[in-house]
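Closing statement on the nicotinamide-adenine-dinucleotide sub-project.
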Amino acid sequence: MSDATPIAIVIRMACMRAEVAVRSGHAYVAVSRQDAPSADGELALTVSSPESVISAIAGHVDAQGELPAAVSVDGVSYRIDTPAAGTARLAGRIVIVTGSGQGFGKGIAEGLVAQGAHVVVADINAETGQAAVDAMCEQFGDRAAVFLPINVTSQESVVACVQATVDTFGGLDMLIANAGVLKAGGLDEITESDFDFVTSVNYKGYFLCAQAASAVMRQQHALNPDHLTDIIQMNSKSGLEGSKRNFAYAGSKFGGIGLTQSFALELITHGVKVNSICPGNFFDGPLWSDPERGLFVQYLNAGKVEGAKTVDDVRAFYMSKVPMGRGCTPADVVTAIRYLHEQSYETGQALPVSGGQTMLN
Ligand SMILES: NC(=O)c1ccc[n+]([C@@H]2O[C@H](COP(=O)([O-])OP(=O)(O)OC[C@H]3O[C@@H](n4cnc5c(N)ncnc54)[C@H](O)[C@@H]3O)[C@@H](O)[C@H]2O)c1
């Protein structure tokens, strides 16, 4: 190949160009390198440019009415996985969800897999990440999800994760920048290292993930100008209004919205939409409900809620602040993700999903 774009991306975009997708009946496919060529249905090419791969695959679909089962380029074979007909709404989408070993990220990954996506569970914690993947693959099949390690504060780690995603599935349609941490405390409590830790994961980590993901998304768009992709940051209602004695977190999330707006302006010419989701509190998730380290226990011990004597008192206090009377769930967030992905006329937004607790003006 004369182009630096990985061959798997070229093959995938060739299969997904609008006219080919219409004729073959597949809008999204996955492409992965295989050790041995397919026994039949393999299109063998000895070509040297992306354009010749694109026209060869279009020619095959014209002649056969369907995509080849595999394509080999200069003797290296790539398998093409097509979603079963009539399947789910996100069939064939390739998605990285950072921080998806537990909490919101895990629920988001499960929700996207259930709707047909191939999901990369990318987490710093291999044990929880692999366990989440094992459960999803048991229910939805081997290609539903993979675990890849990532530390979102390290450029090397983030780039390696995105590269491994391309090697595994042949591209990237959506990045959910979800990994996030919280250290609550006032100006008299938060240390410099606490502040650096929160800023590094929530703010710098989003930059590094968007940078690495957008490099692949740009390559895809250059080959297939109809193909839109999404970067979606898991922000917070604390990214829209200040949070008392929680400034490190709120500041990192406000900053994240600045990144979202700026990335959106830069990337739209490459077909990348960039938006944030600002969920309300996921009271049933580990961040709040962990019996030892959860925020309910922490806030009880810190006396943050006046008069509260039990964890249930603290929970009731926070629940009473939500007009819809319940906490946010991963399913609520998955609905918002689907909206942001399916709409093709909005970018740079911060979408609240907070039961009415935060209202835009
Ligand atoms: N829980 C809530 O109520 C709530 C509300 C609004 C927004 N959010 C946001 O949703 C996101 C997820 O929150 P959660 O409550 O599910 O958190 P969580 O603590 O339950 O899970 C966070 C995950 O991120 C992983 N992680 C931490 N540091 C990492 C790093 N450097 N690299 C890669 N992975 C890392 C952890 O291993 C963990 O699996 C965060 O961005 C958070 O700010 C949460």
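The chain has a mean pLDDT of 95. With this model delivered, the sub-project is considered complete and its resources will be redirected to Aim 3.
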